[in-house]
Write a sequence for this structure.
């Protein structure tokens, strides 16, 4: 246990040293460096974990492929979590169009069993009424953006 604390202290000392160096040379980057150190950034493993959760969920439920933001796909999305030195943010799972509480409960039960099977510790789940997606075009390109969306329910699942 002592060795783990020594390693953690050394890592923090190095990160703080780098943060001070960055802050001295470019003060505007210091807040970003602190956030990255504390909260981390998603790794490839975090992204794979999210893809796996979504894939297993869609294997168990037939969801219409009517997403406005990703035509030809189901309106089910997963945002990767991250592991920092201090904090860990869980992945976030978004479901659009599941209006009834019984449907939401069924989806939550499925996600709970997926957590058990995959070893994911925590998952934030949000149910929205519908996607509010607006496409735009300009001389420089095209794209889309989300507008305000009505949150129906928010749950945190734990293994």
């Amino acid at each position: 246990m002592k060795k783990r604390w020594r390693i953690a202290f050394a890592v923090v000392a190095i990160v703080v040293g780098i943060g001070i160096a960055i802050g001295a040379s470019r003060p505007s980057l210091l807040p970003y460096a602190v956030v990255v150190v504390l909260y981390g950034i998603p790794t490839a493993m975090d992204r794979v974990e999210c893809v796996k959760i979504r894939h297993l969920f869609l294997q168990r439920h037939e969801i219409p492929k009517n997403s406005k933001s990703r035509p030809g796909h189901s309106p089910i999305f997963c945002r990767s979590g991250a592991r920092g030195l201090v904090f860990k943010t869980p992945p976030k799972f978004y479901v659009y169009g599941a209006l009834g509480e019984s449907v939401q409960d069924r989806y939550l039960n499925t996600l709970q069993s997926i957590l058990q099977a995959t070893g994911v510790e925590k998952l934030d789940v949000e149910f929205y009424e519908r996607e509010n997606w607006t496409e735009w075009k300009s001389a420089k390109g095209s794209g889309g953006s989300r507008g305000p969306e009505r949150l129906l329910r928010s749950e945190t699942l734990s293994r």
Remarks:
- The longest strand covers residues 151-158.
